[in-house]
Amino acid sequence: MKGIGASAGIAIGKVFQYEPKRAVAFKKIITDTGSEIARLNAARAEAKSQIEILHIKALETIGKQEAMIFEAHIALVDDPALFKEAVKNITTQNVNAEWALNEAIDKFIQIFEAMDNKYIAERAADLKDIKSRMLDILMGVKAQDLSHLNEPSIIVALDLLPSDTARMNKEKVLGFVTELGAKLSHTAIIARSLEIPAVVGLSGMMKGVKHGDLIILDGDTGEVFLNPDKSIIDKYEKKKQEYFYFKNELKVFIGKPSKTKDDARVHILANVGTPKDVDSCIENDAEGIGLFRTEFLYMDRQDIPSEDEQFEAYKEVISRMQGKPVVIRTLDVGGDKDIPYLGLSKEDNPFLGYRAIRYCIDNVDIFKAQLRAILRASTYGHVKIMFPMIATLTELRRAKAILNEVRHDLKIENIAYDEKMETGIMVEIPACAIAADLFAKEADFFSIGTNDLIQYTMAVDRGNPKVSALYSHFNPSVLRLIKYVIDSAHKNGIPVGMCGEAASDPALIPVLVGMGIDDFSMNPSSVLKARSIVSNTTKADIADKVESILSLATAGEVEEYLNHPGA
Amino acid sequence: MYRVQVQLINETGLHARPASLFVAAAKKYKSDIAVLKDGEEYDAKSILSVLSMGAYKGESLIISAVGTDEEEAVLELKGLIDNNFGVREGSP
What we know:
The complex is a heterodimer. By secondary structure, chain A is an alpha/beta fold. Helices cover 48% and strands 13% of the residues of chain A. The radius of gyration of chain A is 29 Å and the shape is globular. Chain A is built from 23 helices and 15 strands. In chain B, helix 1 runs antiparallel to helix 3. In chain B, a hairpin with a 2-residue loop joins strand 2 and strand 3. Chain B is of the alpha+beta class. The radius of gyration of chain B is 12 Å and the shape is globular. A 4-stranded antiparallel sheet of chain B has the order 1-4-2-3, covered by helices on one side. Classes of the chains: A alpha/beta, B alpha+beta. At the A-B interface, helix 3, helix 4, helix 5, helix 12 and helix 14 of A face helix 2 of B.
C-alpha cells in the first residue's frame, strides 16, 4: 500500500484504530424555546473554555503556529451571525438546540465548500471541528480522544483534527496513517513538527485494519505494510535503526562550529525561499542564510508586492536570524520562473534571455522598491545584498549605482539603513567566472551558483534526459572554474561561498574546503550533514590533492578518485 | 441610519486578513452594522457572515449602520476598504 509520505522516518508498531464517536444531531420539536436558547448559550460557554484549555496545551506542546488554530475556533464559537441563525432556527421552527446549531453550521459549511478558495476551505474544516465539539457538549457525549493511549501505537484514522492532535499523549504515538490529507494538511504539519513518521492520503485504510494489527510505515516513501512477513519486518527494523543513528549522530553537530580536523573554519548557511523556512534554519543550526530567494514574494499573486510588504517579509527573516548574516538575492525572474503580471514576453531561449538583473536594471521602479525594502530592513540584523546573473561589470556598476541612488533617497528622507551593508554577486555565468579577478575588485563577496554555472558552462539543460548526463559538478571544466573564482576572490581579499546544489554534495564538500572556500549555503536539512563532513575533513590533506584532482580529464575520473581517496 | 457605497479595490477582496481586519473594526462600534451585496444583507461583526458574502475585487458594497456611533463606524469601514486595508500598492 502506498500513500503520501508526510513526515520522514520509519515506524513499526501496533495499530490503534482511532474512530472518535462523534455526536450526531437529531431533530426534536420543542415548546420551551427559551430553555433551548439557554442550553445553546451554555454549550457556547463550555466550548469556549474547552478550547481555551486546548489552546494553552497546544502552545506548550506543539507550537505557536498550530495553537493559532484554536484562536480561530474561539472566534467561531463567538460568531454573532452563527448564533443568530441558530437562535432563529429554535424560535421559528421550534427545534432543539442540537438541530438548530447543526443546521446553522452546515449552512455556512455548504457556502464555504462551494467557494473553491483554499482559505475558506480551511474555515470549513474549523467549523466541522467546533460543530462536533458543541454537539458533544449538548448531547453529553464524552469525546473519545488520544490522551489515554496505554501502549506505543501507530494511530490509524480517517483524519486527525487539531483537537485530536492537541490532546494526544505524544509519548505513546509512534506514527500516523490517515485516509485523508496531503503534505500540507494538519496531520502532516503536526507530524513533522513533532518528528513523528506519517503517511497520509491512504484511502480505504480504516476498513482494512483492526486494533493491534502490526503495521509498518515509511514516512519518506509513503509505503505502508499491514501484518508484514518477517523479511519485511527485518528490513524495516534495520532501516529504522539507520535512520535513528543518522539523526542522532547529526544532532551532535548542533551548536558546534563548522571546522575541519586541522581547525580550518568554514561557515555553513542555509538557502531559504520564504520566511517560513527560517524555522528549519534555526532547527538545523545554520550559521546564517546564504541565499534568500526573494522570488516567492512576487509569485502566486496578481500584483507586485509593495515596498512595505517586502520590508515586513525581510524584517521577519532578518530579525529571526538574530544577527547572523542574511544574504538577500534581488529578484531573479525569467528563465524557468515566470511571473505573469510582470509581462515578460515568451522567449525562444528563456535561460539566455531577459531575466534577473537584466530585467531589474531596465525596470528601475520595481528594482528600487525592492532595494528600499532591503535597505530599510537592514537595520534589524546583518544583511548583505546579492545581485543574480551578473555577466558584465557594466551591469554590476549599473546595479550598484541604482542601489546608491536608493541609499541617497533614504538619507534625504531620514530613513535608517545599515551603511556598511555589503554588496556581492552570484557567480553563475561563465563570463563572470572567467573574469572573476575583475569582478572581485568591485564586489564585496562572491557566491557561486552552481546550478546555472554548470548549465551554462556545459551548455546543457539538465531537465532534458538526452543530455542531462553531461550535467555534473565533477566536470574538470566546472571544477577549474570554481577554483579560479575562489583564488580570484582571495587574491582580492573578498570571501567566496557556494549556494548551488553542489554545495551539499558529500563528495564535493571536502574538495571545496581544500580549494579554500569560505562559506557553503544549502537546504536547511543538509546543514548538519555538511558540518559532519567538514568535521571529518583535514583541509591540508585535501589542499595537497587539489592540483591532482584538477588535472584529471573527465567527470568520471574525478568521481572515481574521490570515491577511492587512498588510491 | 448612515450608509455609503464602496468599491473593493484590493486584490484579495473581503477574505483572509482583510476580512478579519474588517470584522475587528466593526466590532469596536455599538451600532448594528450591515453590509449589502446583491440585495443580500450580511453582519459586519461576523467573520462567517462576511466570508460567506464572497466579495471580490471590483465589486461594490453598501455599508450601513444604525446606532449612536453609526457615522463613525461606516466611515472607518469605508476608509479601510478605500485605503486597501493599510497595504500600500507596489510601484507600477
